Please model this.
Amino acid sequence: METRTEQAAGQPRVKTTRIILWTAIGLLALAIIAVFAISAKVGWSLTHPVRAEITSSPAEVGLAYQDVNFNSRKDGLKLSGWLIKAPANEQTVIFAHGYRKNRLQEDVPLLPIARFLVDRGCNVLMFDFRNSGRSEGELTSVGQFEVRDLLGAVDFIKTQPDLNRQIVLMGYSMGAATAILAGAREPTVAAVIADAPFADLKSYLMANLSVWTDLPPVPFNLAFLIVVPPLTGLEAETVSPVKEVHNFNGRPLFLIHGEGDTDIPIANSEAIQKAYPKARLWRVPEAKHVKAYEVAGELYLEKVAGFLDEVKEMP
Model:
């Protein structure tokens, strides 16, 4: 039979154990709150990036251009861009820029490519996605709403009676993924050139979010995907080129990806090609993210020109 002395000795031990338990629970709760708070702050920052300034124009590469404005499809945001008309008027190419960039996409850069395309007879539309450059909007959604902007650009081209209606979308990074989505949803798009697209935004973020946040993948990637949707409206699962690419229904898709790309690994383009075997994938050795043009130079332009010539011959 337990004596009163033994009972008295046991009570402090029980009390101490409870204190330790509740302290541990409290610290765990604080840690969880901190993780979600940090994820929310980073998520807000990533979806509201500082706009890159437009520092040049097509005139710098000898191109005449028009300042144009048009509306995003569905939500009507006012978007800003440049229309460059080619005398030959054989095709129309719409550029789609990447995350945190603008119509210039200076890390490629796009102006020399625009010059090349115009010389080959392509009209070119360069514009800023929402919350970029000189366009309206306050949220960057990494393709979810930007696809409406690109579809608005397609609608704008259709209102121009003097422009060739064979429309090719040419996108980079986020813009490449968005171009695939737009091509899948708009059958009047003749073809798409996608340089370094991601295949599925949710899967990509789970595996690579730390590239953009500098935070450890565990536990922040999952916390980000939990807290950001109600905070910003971003629904990553709705941005999935690999799930929509089958809607190309035989139309041409040219994938370009650097084998040295660590921001969006080439496995993303491989997955898209697997889902749509008619897609062509050009692997550029050693090229990092959207650096295929920088690495391959004239060969890059030749590959693009060859693809456009094939599209031109389509019925």
